[in-house]
Amino acid sequence: MPERPMQTRITELLGIDYPIIQGGMQWVGRAELASAVSNAGGLGILTALTQPSPEALRAEIRRCRDMTDRPFGVNLTLLPTIDPVPFDEYIRAIVESGIKIVETAGRSPEPFLATLKAGGAKVIHKCTSVRHSLKAEALGCDAVSVDGFECAGHTGEDDVPNLVLLPCAAAVLKVPIIASGGIGTASQLVAALALGAEGINMGTRFVATDEAPVHDNVKRAMVEADERQTALVLRTLQNTARVFRNAIAEEVLAIEAREGATDFADLRPLLAGRRGRERVLEGGDINDGVWTAGMVIGLIDDVPSCAELVQRIVREARELIATRIARFA
Ligand SMILES: Cc1cc2nc3c(=O)[nH]c(=O)nc-3n(C[C@H](O)[C@H](O)[C@H](O)COP(=O)(O)O)c2cc1C
What we know:
The protein is globular and about 55 Å long. It is α/β, with parallel strands linked by helices. 42% of the residues lie in helices and 14% in strands. Helix 8 (186-194) crosses helix 14 (306-325) and helix 11 (247-256) runs antiparallel to helix 12. It binds flavin mononucleotide. Flavin mononucleotide (FMN) is lined by residues 23-26, 28, 47, 75, 77, 105, 126, 147, 150-153, 180-183, 201-205, 207, 292-294, 296.
């Protein structure tokens, strides 16, 4: 028997059964994964820029609709890129495809918010600080994903982990908060709820699932790794990203540790997204490119299906609340 729904303001806002979201993930957030998470009762999210063009995104949205009749969202990452991205056209593809949930990240969604709202989309903005969360709320975002320092990918430069960041955010925000970063287990869902969040967002944990479209070697490496096996690259350029600590990440760190200002040209061949995708995520050589992963790899011990993972988290969260937590009430 599947667990009964677990209601929060986030599940009500998004029309889902459980307050568990799969965050946008470049090269990973495709229809296979997003539909599996949505079919499991959480919210799956397609990653817009994984698709090479707005037309390809429209096709991917159609493909995902064929795989689930549950709500799913689209992530639009607004970071500066080496090749310019036609953001307006991606936004048009999202709105015209009838997408009603959009996760924005990277910088303020302000330039696109009116169009998304006019299309009827709920906007979740993901950011790494209280001040950016407040800005997102003031702009009219419907929810904020608060990404603590533990997270995979862009950590920001404040380095505040979720044990402090979430209650700081909860003290001042009125819109519902989604806890993001470092989360993969039921006890962390319970903790996130206690800290003021009404849902969790997971990236890394969902990469180590059956349906994630990445090479098995990547999933196995996550199972084997401990919590110290991530590295912060691009710190010297104030564009910090948490990645799996492998040979290439070490090479990047060695270049960044040299005296004098870091020249991005030295790093580009090592950090190229295409290299990580082709050699690691598709090719399975976990040491031949940079790939995004968070500290939660230390808590990943298996590669379940998305349905098994979501059910396990909800079931164990309820058990925890009824046992370990209830005895203090
Ligand atoms: C492989 C991978 C790729 C990611 N790519 C993106 C991205 O393109 N845009 C984005 O907003 N977040 C991206 N993220 C971050 C996740 O959406 C999420 O915020 C983060 O993974 C949460 O931390 P966790 O990994 O500890 O759960 C990525 C994460 C991973 C693991």
